[in-house]
């Protein structure tokens, strides 16, 4: 067998790098220069109805763009914004008009293979663009810093590692996590069987192949041994899963981080088997570096974003390092409802918060490529560049937040507060304060909804601030409401609840009685006792307002009374 030399370190986050790693499987060059080495600034999904603010050298995904005239117009616009390339769904005809538009704009056109989901392409591209500079944190380094290497390869560069291992084994390989999700793959995947191509396109080993491997006991043996194992599909193979595999677990101590899978025609020689064992150790170092780099980048991003939203001397520099200077910003704050007492240090809750913040960052980054999200003090704050009319900023941010909550479902309830559009450092800090006010209302009152702006909950926010001042002065409820509460406490009564129901029903006795599951005559009797015990004139609007305000400031007064229950229904 012939063996090609292992590739050395290559330029990262460039169009040339993308085409080297994804070109043979996912992408094809339709027209333009594929050897461009300029750093790609980010991956952007084109939206013809709401054009996003592009980062420098953006790789634009033209989802649904097919009309030749629309493609030409989009190329011209991307050329003015300095985009790196445009990706369209294959097949893309390289007509004279398309070539002319591409050359005039200086934007290459790529075709995405049929059957490859756009979300998988975006995920693969983002895993390639791991250089710190491409994420808007220039100079911070990270998992993919060029100044660091492991085994002669850029630290954390799993695609470079995959190609190096493939050269050693003379076989196409994939690097997968514990859930059989593809983290990186080498070239020459066309030499494998159709199941490997399907795995690459879906970025996940299909369930039917995982089931076959489980039935063969492959995963059990893989996780128990540190030796490569040979997997022959044999009689279990179908027409697309026919080529044998050699797999080895990637370990860090006793922890299984993932695995390496090579598509081979026959068992490996002893030399290549040993090479695969050694390669697994190298891959483990890179996976650990990626994990550590992600943690470092997460902390640095949290520090920078925290400096921006707090204001102060370092806010301007932090905003520039986040790549969000000199542009209006949308400000959002996401949090989970307050945990039960004693659950504040729950590691599971902390993990879920981080998972939610990461998902929010991915969603916000897909909608607004120039954005930054970080978990600060248990709250995930998001800043997103915005180029539309200021009056439409908050409604747009609310739609983005609502769409995110609908996507994640109800597994972990969350609320999102929307602040006003900010155009300066002072306004950013003020918008953060506004978002915090809204967030407090949403966490305090589930009825306020999962997403809100200040205009939606301003009264509730003012009442919470007033409650804080009252409690800070050590004041307690006084006047008629205090007398009613004392009577209820001594006589196990429901006068406070009666008053609350009457006020909520705008004085409609029948509605109020129905809410408490009592007869209207019983309710009228209790209402007379409210007047007598409390010395309250319910016809006086000032007295009504006073007790309504007190009930909002001390909601526990009504909650302390026995909860009414509906009458039993007998057959």
Task: Please describe the structure with a list of short key phrases separated by commas or semicolons.
571 residues; alpha+beta; five-stranded mixed sheet; 20 helices; disordered N terminus; disordered C terminus
What do these coordinates show?
With 571 residues, the chain is an alpha+beta fold. It has 20 helices and 17 strands. The protein has a five-stranded mixed β-sheet. α13 links the parallel β16 and β17. The protein is elongated. The N and C termini lie far apart (84 Å). The N terminus and C terminus are likely disordered.
Summarize the structure.
46% of the residues lie in helices and 14% in strands.
For the termini, the CA-CA separation is 84 Å
Q: Low-confidence parts lasting 5 or more residues at pLDDT below 50?
A: 1-12, 131-147, 339-345, 562-571
Q: Helices and strands: which structural class?
A: alpha+beta
Question: Which strands sit side by side, in order, in the main sheet?
Answer: 1-5-4-3-2
Task: Tell me the number of strands.
Answer: 17
